[in-house]
């Protein structure tokens, strides 16, 4: 749930992390000695408060709990971002503003992948001298094991995507390391020596470097793995390690003394300590962020109740960043819940919704532009289109009623799910309920916590069908900056899973599945993007999801922290890799 064009480079030096013209923490004082603001949207253009100063504590706060701190068992953009502090994937994204943040660079690997066999085989060499927090060496076998546990033990670790399972040769037959008692593992991942790992795919995958940037390739020592309980004692390969972990409450990270800067041109290891506080009141998060005392971990931005105060106060507004995040706010229509198995009923929903009322409920244009396609404008393959256009995007009740009639219905009773700890999502769902009611579609709101939204509720097909949840609120960002990285996990029938499911419409269209497969094997970028446009159009014709807004986030920027930069790689969030604490 993450990232626009590949700009891979072999490695970057620490000097290139900081852009020319960015504000420096030491110089960023006014005549009274207080920190001056770099100005509104400064972190969307460069790195704010550039500093190499070590020491202090960086605090993150979140209203709910993450799906998991286990790098092999997470699927939220903010955890992909944060987990790099303790878990180094083969590749990652360069800390940089906006689109520069989409630049793919080697992390655990010494260089980008070397393709062969037309893109069906990918070989990576690890950097030398890599160590875990206990001083033991990191090997290619640990990377192989990490991929096996995260993708092939779905009954144990179900929260992350399953791309490797879908694409590795023999992936449909391998039962995972917890059931496989041999040391051989999946034969299509080979480790000829301790620093080489080779992936053999069943089809060409021209964007494989992006895939290995997922935290699922961060190494895990097999002897230390305890399955779902590994989250309690994660073995760090990054610049920080866990000092304590209190499930659902707090995690505290401290310096990993066995991390070696010589093996890592990306990380700075600046703060002494990193504290992650969970279940914090959303309004308190806003207060702490604007006071300079915390970072909003989830990166969803200031609350609607805080927004007006921030935007009308010039001093507060100067410490905000408003940016696109490569995300779509939408409502999935569950094709397995009657009567939404009929396309006419789905089209009735499309025409019924007043999207401007939804946009207003989310906080207005500063929170996103009204959407009409699956792909957002900042993802390759986007083409302007509006299949269900209505006057002013305010809905068309007459067309909706006609389509209901064509579906054989005069009214529908259903449920709509939303995340209980996301007030704007609740408000948007309420606006949708009001629109639908006007045409005879009666939807009742069901609220579930975001930390369990996919594991226990909206992402469990049997649950949604049993609870008559025909409509599901959702927000999605690209797993990597391409049409495939955005579309695969929400539209491919092969991505449907019984828990942790993100294809919430349970859409399984043969043509779309084939187009996705064709696209990822196509070497020419323009040809690939044309296929993504076709997939978008086919999906909208089938009316399986309602695009609501192209997401924008209004982040509060804490002045007391350094190296703050809003990155497209992680949905517009600040890049969490090198944030430090400024001099007080």
UniProtKB/TrEMBL annotation:
It comes from Streptomyces canarius. InterPro entries: Peptide/Ni-bd, SBP_5, SBP_5_dom. Residues 1-25 form the signal peptide. Keywords: Signal. This is Peptide ABC transporter substrate-binding protein. The lineage of its organism: Bacteria, Bacillati, Actinomycetota, Actinomycetes, Kitasatosporales. Residues 103-495 form the Solute-binding protein family domain. It comes from the Bacteria.
């Amino acid at each position: 749930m993450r990232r626009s064009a590949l700009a891979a480079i072999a490695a970057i030096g620490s000097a290139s992390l900081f852009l020319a013209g960015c504000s420096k923490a030491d110089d960023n004082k006014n005549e009274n000695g207080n920190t001056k603001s770099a100005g509104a949207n400064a972190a969307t253009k460069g790195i704010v408060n550039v500093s190499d100063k070590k020491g202090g504590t960086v605090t993150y706060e979140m209203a709910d709990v993450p799906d998991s701190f286990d790098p092999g068992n997470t699927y939220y953009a903010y955890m992909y971002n944060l987990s790099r502090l303790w878990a180094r994937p083969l590749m990652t994204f360069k800390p940089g503003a906006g689109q520069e943040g989409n630049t793919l660079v080697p992390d655990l690997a010494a260089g980008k992948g070397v393709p062969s066999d037309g893109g069906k085989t990918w070989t990576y060499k690890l950097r030398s001298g890599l160590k875990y927090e206990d001083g033991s060496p990191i090997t290619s076998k640990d990377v192989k094991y990490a991929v096996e546990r995260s993708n092939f033990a779905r009954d144990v670790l179900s929260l992350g995507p399953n791309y490797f399972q879908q694409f590795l040769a023999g992936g449909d037959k391998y039962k995972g390391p917890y059931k496989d008692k041999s040391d051989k593992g999946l034969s299509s991942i080979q480790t000829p020596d301790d620093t080489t790992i080779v992936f053999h795919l069943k089809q060409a995958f021209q964007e494989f470097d992006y895939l290995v940037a997922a935290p699922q390739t961060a190494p895990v020592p097999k002897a230390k793995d305890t399955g779902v309980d590994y989250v309690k004692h994660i073995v760090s390969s990054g610049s920080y390690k866990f000092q304590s972990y209190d499930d659902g409450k707090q995690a505290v990270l401290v310096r990993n003394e066995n991390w070696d800067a010589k093996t890592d041109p990306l990380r700075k290891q600046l703060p002494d300590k990193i504290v992650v506080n969970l279940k914090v009141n959303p309004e308190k998060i806003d207060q702490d962020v604007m006071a300079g005392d915390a970072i909003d971990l989830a990166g969803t931005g200031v609350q609607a109740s805080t927004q007006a105060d921030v935007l009308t106060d010039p001093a507060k507004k100067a410490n905000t960043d408003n940016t696109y995040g490569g995300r779509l706010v939408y409502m999935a229509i569950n094709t397995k819940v009657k009567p939404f198995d009929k396309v006419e009923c789905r089209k009735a929903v499309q025409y019924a919704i007043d999207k401007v009322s939804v946009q207003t409920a989310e906080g207005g244009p500063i929170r996103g532009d009204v959407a009409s396609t699956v792909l957002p404008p900042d993802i390759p393959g986007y083409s302007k289109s509006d299949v269900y256009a209505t006057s002013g995007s305010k809905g068309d009740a007459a067309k909706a009623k006609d389509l209901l009639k064509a579906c054989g219905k005069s009214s529908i009773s259903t449920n709509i799910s939303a995340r209980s700890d996301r007030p704007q999502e609740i408000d948007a769902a309420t606006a949708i309920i009001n629109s639908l009611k006007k045409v005879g579609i009666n939807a009742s709101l069901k609220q579930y916590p975001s930390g369990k939204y996919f594991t226990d509720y909206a992402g469990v097909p049997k649950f949604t069908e049993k609870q008559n949840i025909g409509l599901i609120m959702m927000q999605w960002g690209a797993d990597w900056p391409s049409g495939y990285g955005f579309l695969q996990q929400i539209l491919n029938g092969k991505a449907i899973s019984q828990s942790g499911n993100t294809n919430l419409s349970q859409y399984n269209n043969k043509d779309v599945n084939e187009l996705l497969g064709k696209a990822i094997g196509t070497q020419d970028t323009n040809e690939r993007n044309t296929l993504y446009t076709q997939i978008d159009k086919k999906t909208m014709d089938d009316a399986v999801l309602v695009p609501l807004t192209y997401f924008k986030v209004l982040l509060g920027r804490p002045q007391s922290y350094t190296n703050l930069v809003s990155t497209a790689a992680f949905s517009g969030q600040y890049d969490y890799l090198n944030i430090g604490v400024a001099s007080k």
